[in-house]
Design goal:
Layout (H helix, E strand, L loop, with lengths): L2 H16 L4 H9 L5 H30 L11 H17 L7 H6 L5 H16 L4 H7 L7 H7 L12 H9 L4 E3 L6 E7 L2 H4 L8 E6 L8 E6 L4 E10 L5
Parallel strand pairs: 2-5
Antiparallel strand pairs: 1-2, 3-4, 4-5
Length: about 250
């Protein structure tokens, strides 16, 4: 059922209950002839109870009808994840080669066997990679680095953005802020820096450069895209590291 319909029906139910509000006053004062203060106070208390009941009924009807026909979110419950965690702990105890992942499994609440095996495969890949040993240690803490990022980090003078955004990219690297090429996208960089045109403008020539904000889903905090329109080059700002740094 549509939310607007559920709200309307809930309001109607609440008004139906509220319509009985005058009844105790009619019975008490009109029929029984109650005139004393305590009697009037009792009638007022009953009226207040009816008003609160009307609000309660309206809310319950809205909630009940609002779930009719609504899409159900399918996912694991907290109990399921706790059971999966115990299963992984038993698996690690039975396979000494997986002992390296015990701390990560303990820290991460949502971690299943498929994820564990994926991390183990990546760990072995990094051990075979000429530059991968330090990144293998980082992976044990949950920090996954792709080969493209490893190669980029190994070339401190490399620039992937256009000539207009390159000065920003070089300074990001100079400041040691994590940045890497966006996979399967030319002339596009992502960074953990928090970028905004108003902070970049005093330090860089930004003619033809604009700022866009994107959201991956309704509850996503969003990320800023610093884009050069003429070159179709961009920097994705997906972090909280202030840049340029404050003097």
């Amino acid at each position: 059922m549509r939310p607007s319909t559920a709200r309307a029906l809930g309001l109607a139910a609440g008004l139906g209950v509220a319509a009985t509000f005058p009844l105790p006053f009619y019975l008490g004062m009109g029929v029984l002839g109650w005139k004393q203060r305590w009697q009037i106070a009792l009638l007022a208390l009953i009226g207040l109870g009816i008003a609160l009941l009307a609000v309660f009924v309206a809310m319950r009807v809205q909630r009940a009808l609002g779930t009719v026909g609504a899409p159900q979110i399918v996912g694991r419950s907290a109990r399921d994840w706790a059971a999966e965690k115990r299963r992984l702990q038993a698996m690690i105890a039975a396979e000494p080669a997986l002992e390296r992942w015990r701390d990560l499994v303990e820290r991460w609440g949502h971690f299943d066997e498929a994820a564990l095996m994926r991390y183990e495969r990546r760990y072995q890949e990094l051990l075979r990679h000429p530059l991968g040993a330090p990144y293998a240690e980082m992976l044990l803490k949950g920090d996954w680095r792709a080969d493209e990022e490893i190669a980029y980090a190994a070339e401190p003078d490399r620039v992937v953005t256009c000539a207009h955004l390159a000065p920003i990219e070089r300074d990001l690297r100079r400041e040691g802020i994590r940045s890497a090429p966006v996979l399967h996208a030319e002339r596009r960089l992502w960074t953990e820096a928090c970028l905004a045109l108003k902070r970049l403008a005093p330090n860089y020539e930004l003619a033809g450069v604009d700022e866009e904000v994107y959201y991956d889903h309704p509850r996503d905090p969003g990320y800023v895209l610093i884009r050069c329109r003429g070159c179709d080059s961009a920097i994705d700002s997906r972090g909280g590291v202030r840049f340029p740094p404050e003097a």
